[in-house]
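The records we work with from here on pair a chain with its fold. Each token is a code from a learned vocabulary of local backbone shapes. A record is reproduced here so that you can trace the correspondence yourselves:

_____
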Amino acid sequence: MTRFNSEDHLARYIEFGEFPSIHRPMVEAVQWACPDDARFLDLGACFGLLGAAVQTLRPKAVVIGVERSASAIELAQKYGLPCQLVRMHVSRETVTELAGLIRKFKLNTVIARRVLPELWGGDLEGGRMFAKTLRDAGIRQVL
């Protein structure tokens, strides 16, 4: 099985314009549940491939990806992925900064494939605080 953040996914996108099949369920959820002009926070974006797939599906959408890995962001920029990426390690200490980003771009939907348990799986109170902060910042839907 190929890891979610594998450079193999990026290579296939660069060479063939092919998005990872692991994103298919999320893209289908966006297609089903989100309006054309939704404004997405791609949490744990890695290279921004999910955000790029969403923007392909919804050209009027805004997608801002948040990623902690500087090298993933550098590769995305090198290959011209269309999703804007912001470097941030999401934690209790940075959730206020994340809320500011949500407000700045008027984001209303989170796409968070597999990342929420990694962030808050062992910290129920932190997860509650995170959810409340996102809601108060303008997030109305989490996919």
